[in-house]
Amino acid sequence: MSAPATLLAVRDLNVYLAESHILQGVSFDVVAGGITGLLGRNGVGKTTTLRGILGLVPRTGSVTLEGAETTKLPTHEIVRRGVAYVPEDRDVFAGLTVEENLRLAERAGAPHRYDLVYELFPELQQRAAQKAGTLSGGQQQMVALARALLNGDNRILLIDEPTKGLAPLVVRHVVDALRRAAEIATILLVEQNLSVAHSLVRNVIVLDQGRVSFTGEVDHLMGDPALARRHLGLATAGSH
Amino acid sequence: MTTIALLLITGLGLGALYFLIAAGLSLIWGLMRVLNFAHGAFFTVAAYAGWSASGLAGGASPEVQWLLALAVAVLAGGAFATLTEVLLIRPLYTRHVGQVLVTVGLALATISLVQGGFGSDPKRLALPAWMTGTIAIAGANIPTTRLVVIAFALAVFALLIFFLRRTRFGLIVRAGVENRAMVQALGIDVQRAFTLVFAIGGAAAGLAGMLAGTYYGTIDPGRGTSMLIFAFIVVIIGGLGSVTGSAVAAIVVGVLQQFLNFYGAAGVGDFSVVLLLAVVLLVRPGGFSGSST
Questions:
Q1: How far, CA to CA in Å, does B166 sit from each of A103, A125, B30, B275?
Q2: C-alpha pair distances (Å), B248 with each of A96, B22, B144, B235, B289
Q3: Chain B within 8 Å of A164 (Cβ-Cβ)?
Q4: Is the ipTM of this complex over 0.85?
Q5: Residue A109 in contact with partner chain B when CB distance is under 8 A
């Protein structure tokens, strides 16, 4: 059986913000298909890694998508090659309606999956004319996920803490949507809720102080209390 | 009553000029975070380009001369602004001090060049005969030019609102005013929106340059700079990035200035506008409107 193909390869990624060396030579691969988790304690550089892949922060090193170098490209060109982004704070455009938020995400030449988006999040269709700034946190997360899912040619979704600050019922809804999304695109998921992460991801990359401290299968990490404690600071491991 | 009507409509005319300058400034700041001190230079260069074109068409009727001047001013303002964005602002997007220095420098150099080329004396603008008369409104004889300026500002306001609310570029501009990085993260080349906004802002400033010549009857090298100061005040009072806010603030500033300059001592109107700015900054720091249109 052949090894799964690498979709995204990050090599020696370094990011400096002000005087701080946030990412210190981060390297990892994301294989095509399914959800790969990017885990670690608060402030270790998970969000910066996603922003570095997209070129939203100045960085050195190399990022390749299906073998093609993207490091020198501006952010919008990287995105047009099939990288979608769901930021930690959702970053919906508060002054635009839900429909305008989605229309803005439409990319020329890409098939638009409104059917899928409205099937996953029927509320968005009902609230199409509502200003996104007046939506609840869960509804804003739906808009952010919908924008990433809309274009049929997206190959990888970079999703940053999609369940942060959401009610348990909404978390379940988001988890279901992520499972469905993983059927059509590869996902690199940053998630602080480890039970959510454990239920969704197959492989994990753990960051610690701006460096990769662990890569492997999530069951291996979470099933070994000593390993989980060392990399994630957990008192106990194996939680679901 | 007649005095009030005259002051009100004259104030609205002045506010219309402020709006035409402020709308571009506001969008440029809102989308690009560029404090464009060269906006007054767009106004001045466009006014002189229009006046020159009018002179070259000396054999034509005043109507044709005036319309030609207006069209040339709009094109010159837009072209000058586009070149400024591409050649001077684009390399300095992340360097705000550099932007301020280069736009201040461009403004000073441009005004000096215009003075050197055309002299400091005001230049008389050829106006159609119907525009030099007055129209009686509420018993007051209102100079027709005031109504012309107001009509153009209303048309520009309607066009800008249509552009912002009904076109994809407008959607990009409104979203970019809120969160530029996220617009890029949706795969949109925000750079093209920057250039377009600069061009639109420059064209509106160019139109203001020619309409100010129509309003006052003459053009001179210093008017762009003096009007820019009040346009900046309008932008801040209206809310950075908001065209509607700028329109409301321009009316308030123009009318307030006219009334207080007439009823108060000399300069009271100008001072009161600065005072209004201070009050708005204290009470409502985001200005009249925080929205992007």
A1: 12, 20, 19, 37
A2: 21, 11, 22, 10, 9
A3: no
A4: yes
A5: no
CATH number where A71 lies: 3.40.50.300
| Token pair in block for residue B92 | 């300095």
Number of domains, chain A: 1
Note whether residue A77 is domain-resident.
Answer: yes
Q: For residue A56, which residues of chain B lie inside 8 Å, CB to CB?
A: 181, 184-185
* A76 to B184: CB separation less than 8 angstroms, yes or no: yes
Kindly calculate the radius of gyration of chain B based on its CA atoms and give it in whole angstroms: 19
Q: At A169, list the tokens.
A: 């019922």
Per-residue pLDDT of chain A (240 residues; tens, 9 = 90+): 566 689 999 999 999 998 899 999 999 999 999 999 999 999 999 999 999 999 999 999 999 999 999 999 999 999 999 999 999 999 999 999 999 999 999 998 889 999 999 999 999 999 999 999 999 999 999 999 999 999 999 999 999 999 999 999 999 999 999 999 999 999 999 999 999 999 999 999 999 999 999 999 999 998 888 888 888 876 544 444
- Domain limits for position A44: 6-90+154-232
Residue from A56, A73, A76, A83 whose CB has the most chain B CBs within 10 Å, to mutate: A76
Work out whether strand A156-160 and strand A186-190 pair parallel, antiparallel, or are unpaired: parallel
The rounded radius of gyration (Å) of the Cα atoms in chain A is 17
Cβ–Cβ < 8 Å for A211, A198 = no
Query: What is the number of other CB atoms lying within 10 angstroms of the CB of residue B41?
Result: 30
